C-alpha cells in the first residue's frame, strides 16, 4: 500500500487521503439564510483537521503487528468506562439482537440530540475498548467537555451475551439486522439525527447498508474504520504470510468457533437438520483459520435465505464485499484504514468514484489500533479525534436529508417498514434498573480487539 502515499503530495502529513472531485453538500441554514454548498475537502479542512493530522504511533508500538496485538492483549478495563442499558429486539425471523444504550440516565439529554449507532467488529460487542474509546467522550455532558450525544451499540446475534434464538448467525454482508435496529431507534427517537460508526466487520456492514439504502438511509452520515472491503482479496492476503495465517486468521477463526460453542443448543435442537449437521462438523475443527470457519459455518448461516446458503466461502466473500457497493453511498462517509494493517491490505483508495466519500489511509495504526503516546507509558487512540470531529461537523454544518421508508406497527406488535414487509422487530426484554458495565460483558474465550 506504500504507493498510496504518493497521492498526498503537498500535504504536511504522510497519510494518504482521497477527496472526491465532484462533491458538494448543502450547508445547514442559519437564521433562514440562503444555502450554499460545501465540498468535502473544504468541509474536512475547516472542521475536521484531525483527519489531516499526522498520526504518530506510540514509540513501543512501532508497527502494525504491535498495534494490533496491543489492541488484542492490552488491559483496557479501567479506560473509557461506559455503562449501558440493554434492550433485546426479537426479529420477525425469530432472531434476537441486543441494543446497548448509553448514557443510562437519559432524561437530561435533549430529544433531538444526535445518536451514534455503533457496529462492532467480528466477535465483539459494546464492551470493546475501541467502541468505548469513541463513546466515552461523545456521550459525556457538554459541560464536562463531551458532545452530549446518545449512543446505541448493536450487538449481533449471539455476541456479548445476546441469546441466539434462531439458527441464523451474522456476517460481514448481512444488513437486515442493522436495518431493523435502525427502525427501532428512529421510532423511539424520532427527532434525533442518526449517525453511524462501524469497526472492521461492522464497517463492512455499515458501508453495505449505506450503499443499499442510498437516499433512503436512516443514517445521515457514517465513519467506517478498518473496513475489510474486498473480502476475498484480503482473505487471500491474510493467508499468504505465516503470521497472517497462523496468528491473525487462526485467532479470528478460533474466536468464531468459541462463540459458536456457546450456542450449541440453539443450533442443534434437531440433530438431523442441515444446520445441526454443519455445526457438529464445524465443532471438530481445531484452531480453524477465518476462511475455514467461513467455509464451514458463515457461508451457510451468515444471513437470511436468499442469498444464503452459499456454495463456498469464496462465493460468500464475493457477495459480501463492500468495495463493489461503495459507489452507491449517498450520504457523507469517512473511511479510515491503516497502511500497516496486517488484517486488511487492500483498500479501494478512489472509493469507486463515489462523490460522498473521503478515504484516509494512515501509514501506521495496525488493525483497530491507532495507539499514540500521551506520556511515557500511557496511550490513547488517535482515531477518536477524527471520528468525533467528523460526526459533530456533519450534524452541525451539513444540511443532510434522506427519505427513509415509513414505519408502522402490525397486528402482532412488530414495528415494520412499508417497503420491506418481511422485516419487523419488537422489544422482548428491557433490563430496566440494571446496568451493563462496558468493560465487563466480554464473552469468555473470545479475544478482544478483533
TrEMBL record:
A single GO molecular function term of this UniProt record: monoacylglycerol lipase activity
Origin: domain of life: Eukaryota
Keyword flag NAD: no
Catalytic residue list: 200, 341, 367
Keyword Coiled coil assigned: no
A GO biological process held by the record: medium-chain fatty acid biosynthetic process
SUPFAM superfamilies: alpha/beta-Hydrolases
Signal peptide boundaries: none
A Pfam match: Abhydrolase_6
Keyword entries, A-Z: Hydrolase
Domain AB hydrolase-1 residue range list: 116-371
The family this protein is said to belong to: Belongs to the AB hydrolase superfamily. AB hydrolase 4 family.
PANTHER family per UniProt: ABHYDROLASE DOMAIN-CONTAINING PROTEIN, ALPHA_BETA HYDROLASE 1, ISOFORM A
Name of the protein described by the UniProt record: Alpha/Beta hydrolase protein
Protein source organism: Pterulicium gracile
Lineage of source species: Eukaryota, Fungi, Dikarya, Basidiomycota, Agaricomycotina
Amino acid at each position: 500500500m506504500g504507493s498510496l502515499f504518493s497521492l498526498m503530495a503537498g500535504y504536511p502529513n504522510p497519510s494518504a487521503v482521497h477527496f472526491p472531485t465532484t462533491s458538494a453538500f448543502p450547508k445547514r441554514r442559519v437564521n433562514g439564510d440562503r444555502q450554499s454548498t460545501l465540498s468535502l475537502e473544504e468541509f474536512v479542512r475547516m472542521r475536521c483537521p484531525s483527519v489531516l493530522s499526522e498520526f504518530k504511533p506510540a514509540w513501543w508500538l512501532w508497527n502494525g503487528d504491535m498495534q494490533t496485538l496491543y489492541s488484542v492483549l492490552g488491559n483496557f478495563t479501567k479506560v473509557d468506562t461506559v455503562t449501558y442499558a440493554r434492550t433485546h429486539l426479537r426479529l420477525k425471523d425469530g432472531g434476537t439482537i441486543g441494543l446497548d444504550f448509553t448514557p443510562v440516565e437519559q432524561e437530561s439529554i435533549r430529544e433531538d440530540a444526535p445518536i451514534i449507532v455503533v457496529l462492532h467488529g467480528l466477535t465483539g460487542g459494546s464492551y470493546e475498548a475501541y467502541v468505548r474509546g469513541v463513546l466515552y467522550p461523545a456521550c459525556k455532558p457538554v459541560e464536562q467537555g463531551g458532545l452530549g450525544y446518545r449512543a446505541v451499540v448493536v450487538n449481533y446475534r449471539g455476541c456479548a451475551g445476546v441469546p441466539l434464538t434462531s439458527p441464523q448467525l451474522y456476517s460481514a454482508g448481512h444488513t437486515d439486522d442493522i436495518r431493523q435496529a435502525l427502525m427501532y431507534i428512529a421510532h423511539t427517537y424520532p427527532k434525533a439525527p442518526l449517525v453511524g460508526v462501524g469497526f472492521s466487520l461492522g464497517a463492512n456492514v455499515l458501508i453495505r447498508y449505506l450503499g443499499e439504502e442510498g437516499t433512503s438511509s436512516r443514517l445521515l452520515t457514517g465513519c467506517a474504520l478498518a473496513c475489510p472491503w474486498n473480502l476475498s482479496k484480503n482473505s487471500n492476503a491474510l493467508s499468504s504470510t505465516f503470521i497472517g495465517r497462523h496468528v491473525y486468521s487462526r485467532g479470528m477463526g478460533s474466536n468464531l468457533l468459541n462463540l459458536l460453542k456457546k450456542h450449541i443448543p440453539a443450533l442443534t435442537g434437531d440433530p438431523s437438520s442441515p444446520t445441526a449437521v454443519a455445526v457438529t462438523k464445524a465443532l471438530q475443527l481445531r484452531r480453524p483459520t477465518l476462511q475455514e470457519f467461513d467455509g464451514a459455518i458463515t457461508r451457510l448461516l451468515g444471513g437470511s435465505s436468499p442469498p444464503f446458503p452459499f456454495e463456498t466461502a469464496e462465493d460468500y466473500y464475493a457477495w459480501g464485499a463492500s468495495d463493489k457497493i461503495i459507489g452507491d453511498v449517498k450520504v457523507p462517509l469517512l473511511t479510515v484504514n491503516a497502511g500497516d494493517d496486517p488484517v486488511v491490505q487492500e483498500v479501494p483508495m478512489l472509493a469507486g468514484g463515489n462523490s460522498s466519500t473521503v478515504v484516509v489511509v494512515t501509514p501506521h495504526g495496525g488493525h483497530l489500533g491507532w495507539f499514540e503516546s500521551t506520556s511515557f507509558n500511557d496511550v490513547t487512540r488517535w482515531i477518536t479525534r477524527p471520528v468525533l470531529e467528523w460526526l459533530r461537523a456533519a450534524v452541525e454544518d451539513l444540511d443532510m436529508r434522506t427519505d427513509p421508508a415509513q414505519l408502522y406497527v402490525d397486528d402482532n406488535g412488530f414495528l415494520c417498514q412499508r417497503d420491506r414487509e418481511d422485516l419487523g422487530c419488537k422489544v422482548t426484554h428491557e433490563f430496566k434498573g440494571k446496568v451493563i458495565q462496558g468493560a465487563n460483558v466480554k464473552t469468555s474465550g473470545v479475544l478482544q480487539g478483533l
